[in-house]
């Protein structure tokens, strides 16, 4: 059975410099010695590096797994071997010094005495409106560095999943993307490496201008006839709006016949008019059909920031919701870009 050390070998410094750096730092400093932490982040093999760092910090950890993804048997075996307590989400209750959350799923069943750290946009929205707290709530989503995962990481994962699951070459295919937020932006970027035929549908005028400026074809979601033409002309159709049942409520099912269909959102954006078998990965977020939905190089800075935000909250214990301190955000983005040979200008041009 593998232990934490195996995964640091599997993901070396070249792939996960932030996790390796944090592991050594926490091993020396023990910054959270004796603190209790409830940790709710998808239990994949990559997450084991993040958890290993927290164990080295001296914290007393309780690990669970979000409701939207099944934990892997492999991770549970490693946690047991390392002596880290795992509790199913529906059974996790009580008071902890810190809650490290994903999707604000701990908010109604656990309490935090020193702080809460949230990873996602959905969770950030919920915690921003959360009144029952005397502690800081730090959002990692409200940062530039989150785009490394949400834009680049998810975009690459969606591209990789569609390439594998469709079993068809992507070169020169006509790709239609619904939505040009962080996820849609990343999807367009990666597909554009293989085909010049990228069309994006969005409702917001500022996004339509941005789509055009990047060299893609922009279609307003309010122009029904233009959307119909774009759907019928596409080879691959990907949803990334976050709106449940969007395509079933808005468009005719027959327009999509013979297309490769994929959902990149947490919600079923294809909806009731589409069978599971008609959409890749049975309508679930398509990249989660992969063993590694997001590559470690994109998760590494996010995991680092999620753990680092504990120290942000300890340094500034002011109650209420706020983003991770901007100085941390800029430093992490700059360091990631240098390590992975991306210029800051290229990042600016991408998201």
Automatic annotation (TrEMBL):
<keyword id="KW-0554">One-carbon metabolism</keyword>
<dbReference type="Pfam" id="PF00670">
    <property type="entry name" value="AdoHcyase_NAD"/>
</dbReference>
<dbReference type="InterPro" id="IPR036291">
    <property type="entry name" value="NAD(P)-bd_dom_sf"/>
</dbReference>
<comment type="similarity">
    <text>Belongs to the adenosylhomocysteinase family.</text>
</comment>
<dbReference type="InterPro" id="IPR042172">
    <property type="entry name" value="Adenosylhomocyst_ase-like_sf"/>
</dbReference>
<dbReference type="InterPro" id="IPR015878">
    <property type="entry name" value="Ado_hCys_hydrolase_NAD-bd"/>
</dbReference>
<protein>
    <submittedName>
        <fullName>NAD(P)-dependent oxidoreductase</fullName>
    </submittedName>
</protein>
<dbReference type="InterPro" id="IPR000043">
    <property type="entry name" value="Adenosylhomocysteinase-like"/>
</dbReference>
<feature type="domain" description="S-adenosyl-L-homocysteine hydrolase NAD binding">
    <location>
        <begin position="150"/>
        <end position="293"/>
    </location>
</feature>
<keyword id="KW-0520">NAD</keyword>
């Amino acid at each position: 059975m593998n232990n934490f050390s195996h995964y640091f070998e599997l993901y070396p410094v070249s792939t996960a410099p932030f996790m390796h750096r944090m592991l050594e730092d926490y091993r020396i400093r023990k910054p959270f010695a004796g603190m209790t932490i409830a940790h709710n982040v998808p239990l994949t093999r990559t997450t084991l590096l993040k958890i290993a760092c927290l164990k080295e910090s001296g914290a007393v950890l309780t690990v669970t797994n979000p409701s939207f993804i099944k934990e892997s048997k492999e991770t549970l075996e490693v946690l047991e071997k390392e002596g880290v307590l795992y509790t199913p989400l529906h059974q996790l209750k009580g008071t902890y010094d810190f809650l490290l959350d994903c999707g604000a799923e701990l908010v109604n069943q656990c309490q935090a005495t020193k702080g809460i750290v949230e990873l996602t946009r959905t969770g950030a929205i919920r915690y921003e409106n959360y009144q029952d707290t005397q502690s800081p709530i730090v959002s990692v989503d409200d940062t530039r560095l989150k785009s490394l995962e949400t834009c680049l990481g998810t975009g690459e994962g969606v591209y990789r999943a569609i390439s594998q699951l469709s079993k068809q070459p992507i070169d020169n295919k006509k790709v239609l993307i619904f939505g040009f937020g962080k996820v849609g932006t990343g999807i367009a970027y990666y597909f554009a490496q293989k085909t010049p035929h990228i069309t994006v549908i969005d409702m917001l005028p500022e996004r339509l201008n941005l789509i055009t400026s990047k060299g893609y074809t922009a279609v307003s979601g309010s122009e029904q006839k233009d959307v119909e033409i774009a759907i019928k002309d596409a080879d691959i159709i990907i949803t990334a709006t976050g709106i449940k049942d969007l395509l079933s409520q808005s468009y005719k099912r027959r327009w999509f016949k013979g297309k490769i269909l994929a959902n990149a959102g947490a919600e079923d954006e294809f909806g009731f008019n589409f069978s599971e078998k008609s959409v890749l990965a049975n309508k679930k977020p398509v990249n989660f059909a992969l063993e590694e939905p997001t590559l470690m190089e994109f998760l590494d800075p996010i995991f680092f920031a999620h753990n680092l935000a504990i120290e942000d909250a300890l340094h500034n214990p002011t109650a209420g919701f706020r983003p991770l301190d901007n100085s941390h955000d800029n430093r992490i983005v700059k360091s990631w870009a240098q390590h992975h040979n991306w210029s800051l200008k290229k990042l600016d041009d991408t998201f």
